[in-house]
Write a structure and sequence with these properties.
mainly beta, transmembrane helix, single chain, Immunoglobulin-like, signal, six-stranded mixed β-sheet
Length: 593
């Protein structure tokens, strides 16, 4: 660049100041550091003062190399300024001088721009001054990722076991990782907690940090929450972010085994389905749980045992055993199961009993049970007695019949048994109905039924008043016998039913009356006669014109003739002929209307 005409004057002034020993005073003031996020524009300010003024001031910018040497990146002279070629900042920097402030702008800064920058101020005299600023570039890391171990961890492990790893990438300056358990930070503790970290410097100059947590777990850690916290730096502040929370599977030996009846709830009875459950407060995967019935040696390798239709022998002691095969640990617990029972009801005397009429009836009913029972007696579905004993002071024929004894267990629904007893009362027969029975019929034969009670079952014989024996079919009933005879009616002859057994007999007389059929015939004749009279009356009225009784539809219209006679027109659907009748029944031609 060509110097202007004032250049010789400036050179002369410089020589003059040198000759007389007059030196200018120069001062530079800069910040110790400038902080900025990666990718932004950094501005480094150089504040300077000089008593020569700005006309002859030269401003130069440098950065310090790793070997402590300087690399100039920008030079501004009174008549010329430019960025140095072939440097890290050639195309990214610019200088803005405003009075005594020289601001160096660096665009799109990266972590490799974390350098010390030097501002040098020179005047026309040999005097110069410089200032230094450290540029600090920050880059926030990625969100931390955490991974828990997939396998379970035993509390019996002697050495600390790996819990998980935490990783954070591409941060600057280097992030720091801290592990937490239930919101409490974990620090390295000999033989208890070990935290190891490794750092990787990426090709971009950014830091990636990985941390691994190993520790000796306890049973309580099965519910613990683990996570890592990352601390990183930004301009003028420190920030923190947490990873996701993880849990681990902790294997621990049981200290207690429990066995219980899952169903049925409450008392157990024969016929129920019994379900036993067994559990422990450990969770070792290599454990074996066995439930065993000590009385019968029946066992299952499971935490559940189901026995259907249990009997009283299925009661007793059931033992649950837990065995951990890796550690040879065995622990057991037992429980007693009671199966309640109710045996079949037994009536004494058995099956049936016969007593004389007037004597006392006595029977007992019992059923062996593990619980308190209640006994009731029924006859014909009606309650007749409560308690184990059925007692009747004086038996009658009505006492006879089938009795049912029902034994229940009040405190357990569904426990019930029953048995029956046939009671027979010895005595002379009794025939149902009055001693003399009237029978009326229009037929020539009649069926007669005779039912008799008594024990032994009576024999029924049929005879007539004229000394004949009748053949009949006899069947036994619950309390006696029944016989039906077909009798051909003979005038003035009676029929007798004779029921007899070892203790006596009973006779019933049947008086058979035959109703005459002449009366019925007379009623029919009278009815026919009345119908004939009714028909004659209807015909007479028809002939007189009072009613119309011809078949088909008739149209009736009343008209008044010239003679003031009432005329009725009768017209049939089946003929076109129309007949006009006067009140006296005489025919009139249609033109007489």
């Amino acid at each position: 660049m060509a110097l202007p005409d004032t250049a010789p004057l400036l050179v002369g002034l410089l020589l003059l100041f040198h000759a007389f020993g007059a030196w200018a005073i120069v001062e530079v003031n800069m910040e110790d550091k400038v902080e900025v996020m990666a990718g932004e524009t950094a501005q480094i300010t150089c504040m300077f003062t000089t008593d020569e003024g700005l006309g002859g001031t030269t401003i130069q910018w440098f950065y310090v190399l790793p070997n402590k040497e300087r690399q100039r990146i920008y030079n501004k002279e009174p008549m010329h300024e430019a960025a140095e070629q072939n440097t890290l900042f050639t195309h990214r920097i610019s200088l803005n001088v405003n009075g005594t402030a020289a601001v160096l702008a660096i665009r799109d800064v990266g972590v490799r721009d974390n350098l010390e920058f030097i501002c040098v101020i020179k005047t026309l005299t040999p005097e110069e001054a410089e200032g230094r600023t450290q540029l600090q570039v920050f880059k926030s890391p990625t969100f931390p990722t955490i991974e828990a171990v997939e396998t379970g961890i035993s509390v019996n492990e002697e050495a600390p076991s790996k819990i998980g790893s935490c990783r954070v990438k591409n941060g600057y300056p280097k992030p720091h990782i801290t592990w937490y358990r239930n919101n409490m930070p974990l620090r390295n503790t000999p033989r208890e907690v070990v935290v190891t970290s490794s750092t990787t410097i990426e090709s971009s100059g950014l830091f990636s940090v990985q941390s691994e947590l190993t520790m000796k777990v306890k049973k309580e850690d099965k519910d613990a929450v683990f996570y890592c916290e990352v601390i990183y730096f930004v301009p003028g502040a420190t920030k923190m972010t947490e990873s996701q929370h993880i849990n681990i599977t902790v294997y621990y030996l049981p200290t207690e085994v429990t066995i219980w009846v899952e169903s049925p709830k409450g008392k157990i009875k024969e016929g129920d389905t019994l379900e036993l459950r067994c559990d422990n407060n450990g969770n070792y995967p290599s454990s074996i749980t066995t439930i065993k019935h000590q009385n019968s040696e029946y066992s299952v390798e499971n935490k559940t045992m189901v026995r259907t239709n249990v009997k009283r022998l299925d009661g007793g002691v059931y033992e649950c055993t837990f065995e951990e095969t890796d550690n040879f640990e065995v622990i057991s617990r037992s429980t007693k199961v009671s199966v309640n029972y109710l045996e079949s009801a037994v009536i004494m005397p058995k099956d049936s009993i016969a007593v004389m009429e007037g004597e006392e009836l006595k029977a007992s009913c019992n059923a062996l049970s593990s619980l308190q029972t209640s006994t009731t007696w029924f006859k014909n579905e009606k309650l007749v007695s409560k308690g184990n004993t059925l007692s009747v002071k004086s038996a009658t024929l009505e006492t006879a019949g089938m009795y049912k004894c029902v034994v229940t267990v009040p405190e357990m629904e569904g426990m019930k048994t029953s048995s029956t007893l046939q009671v027979n009362v010895k005595g002379s027969p009794q025939i149902l109905g009055p001693d003399v029975q009237e029978v009326e019929t229009y037929e020539t034969t009649v069926n007669l039924t005779c039912s008799a009670t008594g024990f032994p079952a009576p024999t029924i014989m049929w005879t007539t008043s004229d000394g004949k024996n009748l053949n009949a079919l006899q069947t036994e009933t619950e309390d006696g016998a029944q016989s039906v005879v077909t009798f051909k009616i003979t005038p003035n002859v009676k029929v007798f039913c004779n029921a007899s057994n070892d203790f006596g007999s009973k006779v019933v007389e049947f008086n058979i009356k035959t109703k005459s059929k002449g009366f019925v015939i007379a009623i029919i004749i009278i009815a026919i006669f009345l119908l004939a009279i009714l028909g004659s009356v209807l015909y007479f009225l028809y002939k007189k014109g009072r009613i119309c009784g011809r078949s088909g539809k008739q149209d009736f219209s009343k008209r008044k003739s010239s003679k003031d006679n009432i005329v009725v027109e009768m017209k049939s659907d089946n003929t076109e002929e129309a007949i006009l009748l006067g009140v006296n029944g005489e025919k009139q031609q249609p033109n007489d209307q």
